[in-house]
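Just curious: can you write a single protein's sequence together with how it folds?
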Amino acid sequence: MTKILLVEDDKGITVNLTEFLNGEGYDVMSVPGQTAALNAIKNGSFDLVLLDISLSDGNGFAICKAIKSDYDMPVIFLTASDDEFSTVAGFELGADDYIAKPFRPRELASRIKNILRLTGRTASVIHIGNVKVDTVNGIAEKNGKDLYLSALEYRLLLHFLNNRGTVLTRAQLLESIWDIAGDFVNDNTLTVYIKRLRDKIEDDPQKPELIKTVRGLGYKLDI
């Protein structure tokens, strides 16, 4: 699974963006400042860094310079500083892309996919039983045949994949698929989509082996 380091000191943005990117199939680690970011990069392995310029601890330019000097990692600047100087400075330091706040999450997701493709850092294909999920191309197959998941079904499956072995409440699942298609999603809708997803990925939807019901609590991807 593609690992992203998010360097952002705004807690609201961090929470919302992490949840969105997790739903898109990425493994996100977030840190608030320069020191924590450099430590994370030194001790971890990431496929891409989302980097704010203005940080309470240091700044994004210094982090980008260190990444491009010592590590082979693509960087996307994510900042409210949309002036020409910041843009030029970022690219001169080797940034791969630049997107100004406020931004549309779907546009950011598209930029991330493009940079990963250009730099050859595509996500690993995830296997669950005889189901294969390609999180970069957004394709889910079973026994080599496309499952033709809807946007909501695919988002729901990704949320289960990102929380394998964890019991997810109905409220958590509703949050994960909320407003993906611009439609109102309620508790009854969730029941319908879980059934549809099971019908497509389970060998016997009446006796699910992948997405299991945990009575009184919610559901769990049990693999």
In short: The chain is about 40% helix and 20% strand.
